[in-house]
Amino acid sequence: VDPPSGGQRRCQSKGWGRIVSAEQDGQDRRITPVILSGGAGTRLWPRSRTSKPKQMLPLTGSETMLQMTMRRVADAALFRAPMLVVSEQHAAIVDAQLSEAGLAADLLILEPSGRNTAPAIALAAMAANADDLLLVMPSDHRITDPDSFTAAVERASAIASEGWLVTFGIRPDRPETGYGYIKRGEALMTGVFRAEQFIEKPDAATAQAYIDQGDYEWNGGIFLFKAGAFLAALERHAPAIHAAVREAADGATRDQRRVRPDGKAFANAPAISIDHAVMELADRIAVVPVDMGWSDAGSWDAIYEIGEKDSEGNVLGSDVLALDSRNCLLQSSGPLLVTVGVEDLVVIATDDAILVLPRGQTQRVRAAVDALRERSDPTLN
Amino acid sequence: VDPPSGGQRRCQSKGWGRIVSAEQDGQDRRITPVILSGGAGTRLWPRSRTSKPKQMLPLTGSETMLQMTMRRVADAALFRAPMLVVSEQHAAIVDAQLSEAGLAADLLILEPSGRNTAPAIALAAMAANADDLLLVMPSDHRITDPDSFTAAVERASAIASEGWLVTFGIRPDRPETGYGYIKRGEALMTGVFRAEQFIEKPDAATAQAYIDQGDYEWNGGIFLFKAGAFLAALERHAPAIHAAVREAADGATRDQRRVRPDGKAFANAPAISIDHAVMELADRIAVVPVDMGWSDAGSWDAIYEIGEKDSEGNVLGSDVLALDSRNCLLQSSGPLLVTVGVEDLVVIATDDAILVLPRGQTQRVRAAVDALRERSDPTLN
What we know:
The structure is a homodimer. Chain A is α/β, with parallel strands linked by helices.
């Protein structure tokens, strides 16, 4: 669906307020996707770079994670054109990827700095009508069953319309310690539960206990709520964020679809996730469990898990020759990669960097990135 | 020492015969080094390439293996300028490496094809006087104690002058299964023994028994003998090689220092090593044990063994970041190489290829090279 481009919008070059167009105001009951694309994705170095982070890479298919995320909400009967919250430096590449794929955003909100998810979502919420239902999504997750996703969103929309803040719970299939968990409470509607507790990444034993108990879901970082309901909860539980983002929005400038909040004001917003700032504290939080082939694709281990295995259990990119090698993730977009007799190894190569580490330990890429950052290594850029 | 360049040599543009200059004939008692540089060195892929094999790489220092081999015989009081046997395609790069290092060869014998060591050495022997002492050496071994080497050569020259074929035995410091062994017999002179038996690469138990017995040396592939004594033994034990090389030498053409044997004749020479063709069969074979910090530098494992270890047991090239990694050989002349949490791993990267395999199994590079050869992969060239 093409975004509205009424005269009112183009003239409004300073200030934020209500920038939705007159014709959709209060009449359009469709959901507004809000796609968060501010992440740096250093966990997938060396493929993910500051200049081209994870969501802008074709990690799990021929399209980039961002393009695939946009496709999931492309049904114009259900969704308006999305708002994207991206960092200023990626505006051009985001535009290029959307137009390449024939996709269109309604707004590109250019984050002046990375302040975590609560301020980013607040920017989008302040650009919407209070009654608009916002479907907030990371731009870099993989979902293999988009129909289940859409069904869950529809299931969630009734209670969200009543002012609840809804989070989607991913059915866990293993005692993963890398994700947050949500404990289900009482059933509110069919397939909709009160969210009783948000739990940060647990240790292995705790994670196993959650799996055994059966009433815990992974926190997938996908939310549905009215813009006004979210902002009210934010104002109550994280007033400093609300105030700073309000000021940033009031001082915003606009150039067609691109909106630039005031950078100085935005920098004052505490960098806190939506979970910590709102979801763990507010009343009327619901969780809608959904089984949709979800992965955060957030580490090389995750990329291995969701990748297609050969008969030896390897996930191989092109330009790889794996001899007598087993259960490896091997990718190269640079030199030819040849392995002989290795097991459970991850090797990711690009034109200018090669990462080698054991499978199951790929969170340790962080140590590499930290060391490279210390020496301002160009392979991060 | 500058090679002689008498008028007789320049005029002789066809045929081989006796191409030594008149003035050195029979008067110069110095040793003539014969450096064999025909190897392809695929065991060190991806650094070693068809176009630039192992001996032309600076694997163990700032100079190439060939340059360091030439330096070992640069003492003009002991050695004449060497003859080099190289393959035609490497003539230009060999010239460049010699002139870069201020080194000079007397002759560059361009092998029309690779026929193993016996024919290559025969080419050199036929270019020398029958009484000339030839010191035959691979161009790609590492020797850290050149004085011990020179002393061993001097120790060997007396018996070599009597017509014995001398091989140098490397004192083994481990039960290596990748080398051939020589069993020492009776002492012939101080530090000179009859070579009682040549043994091909043994299995681990046999190698350990050799170490325990103490009278076995590694076969280092370095020889000293009179050209005539070698050719007589070759004619007796491998007449087909002798005849083919004789014909190739007679049909040779010469362009200043470069000599081109007849390719068709040379191709008829059976491709057999000097060990199989002569040393294992002939009488009057002596072995001179020497301890000179020798390594054949013939595998990535060998390169690891002789490399300088850091506190974690790693041998690291430049452009490598090894985090929490132990006992690894990590080199890159291409992309930045980063490892995290790996052990006993070999990673060799260049601009166009990356090899990853476990330490202790680097002979398996052969499988990789075979697979690449099958698809005519450009990274072999």
